[in-house]
Amino acid sequence: MLKKDSRQKRAKKTRARIRLLGVNRLCVHRTPRHIYAQLIAPDGCRVVASASTLEVEVRQQIKNAGNVAAATVVGRIIADRARKIGISKVAFDRSGFKFHGRVKALADAARENGMEF
Predict the structure, then answer these.
(1) Per-residue pLDDT at 22 exceeds 90
(2) What's the farthest any 2 CA atoms get from each other in the chain?
């Protein structure tokens, strides 16, 4: 099995458990150059809020997009956007990635700015 297939299999199992909870999902995706965060509704049909290193607002605050500092900024921004629309409790969906490095930095920044998961 390829590395990507294994990751997607882990993500699928996690999403099945999150679906049973019936709460909003903070979904994280990372590439070598960027990191993306989406707040997805409990039904899974719509994105409520999003943030990524591609946005102008984030680009102004970071030097490089593929590091822990950039992930921290994205985590802070997604937490602020969630708070503005009245969402504080979410389930963290790491998309099968290890909870380490940039994924962990994004999660910690979101927690520090008021999100609970």
Answers:
(1) yes
(2) 42
DSSP category for residue 6: H
- Give the residue among 40, 60, 58 at the shortest CA–CA distance from 49: 40
Per-residue pLDDT tens digits for 36-58: 999 999 999 999 999 999 999 99
Question: Rg (Cα) of the chain, in Å, rounded?
Answer: 14
Structure tokens at 108: 């910690």
The domains of the chain, with CATH numbers, are 3-112 (3.30.420.100)
C-alpha to C-alpha distance for 42 and 6, rounded to whole angstroms: 25
Which residues on adjacent β-strands are paired with residue 90? 24
Whether residue 110 contacts residue 76, with contact meaning beta carbons closer than 8 Å, is answered with yes
Please indicate, yes or no, whether the overall pTM of this predicted structure exceeds 0.85: yes
Alpha-carbon distance values, 62 to 4, 9, 72 (Å) = 28, 32, 10
Tokens representing residue 50 in the block: 């999003």
What is the band of 16 on the pLDDT scale with cuts at 50, 70, 90? very high
The token duo for 64 is: 């490089």
In the beta sheet, which residues pair with residue 37?
Answer: 28, 51
